Amino acid sequence: MRFYRPVGVASEKVVFALQEWTDSCRSFRTQKRPKICFLCGKPLEPFFRFERCCLMRTVTLERLGGCACDALRFIVRGEALRVGICHCLVCQKAHGAPYFAFAVFPRAAVSLSGPHVRWESSLNYHRLYCAACGSRFANLVGDEVELPVASFAEAAGLVPQYENWTIRRLPWVTPLAVRQFERDPEK
Questions:
Q1: What confidence tens digit (pLDDT) does each residue in 56-92 have?
Q2: Are strands 136-141 and 62-66 parallel, antiparallel or unpaired?
Q3: Which of 27, 33, 39, 121 reaches 20 to 30 Å from 70, CA-CA?
Q4: For the residues of 84-135, what is the DSSP string, one character each?
Q5: Residues near 56 by beta carbon (within 8 Å), at least 6 away in sequence
Q6: Neighbouring C-alpha atoms within 13 Å toward the C-beta of 57
Q7: CA distance 11 to 9
């Protein structure tokens, strides 16, 4: 950024004014009172790491993520339809883990990119894997996409709301304080 010295003003005055402006900006950021929207005058609401006001209500949340080697990437726009944990035998074997934590989004809200391998583990349930590192990338189910919570660069806010296939839960895994389903929940 360039600063021009006004004609006829000593450089010391310009430096003092610049320092005063910087100090006022710093003190505004550290104030304990709620921040106010400069257009509508209402307090800003917390919105993840950001704050929003009357103008920003149309801003869409975007989340990024990908596989372990970053050959596959995804961008998700908007909030998750639901977040869950699956204890089914196929998820346990596909991940090599005791359960699979996932977030479900509408297919139109997800952009997938990169070379992948597809496996139809059950009727109309396609599991996508990275061709390079083998990481589980996404599941395509009808008009929805399930993405592994651990694949997001920022997974804050993706908290499980339910657990399914609890009849397959390993005995040493503690249930969460959320809805429990022995098999698939009714949507």
A1: 554 568 899 999 999 999 999 999 999 999 999 998 9
A2: unpaired
A3: 121
A4: EEE--HHHHHHHTSS-EEEEEEEGGGEEEES-EEEEEEETTEEEEEETTT--
A5: 47, 50
A6: 7
A7: 6
Q: Which of 171, 130, 132 is nearest to 151 (CA)?
A: 130
pTM of full prediction above 0.85: no
With beta carbons less than 8 A apart as the criterion, state whether 124 and 87 touch: no
Integer Cα distance of 22 and 165 in angstroms: 57
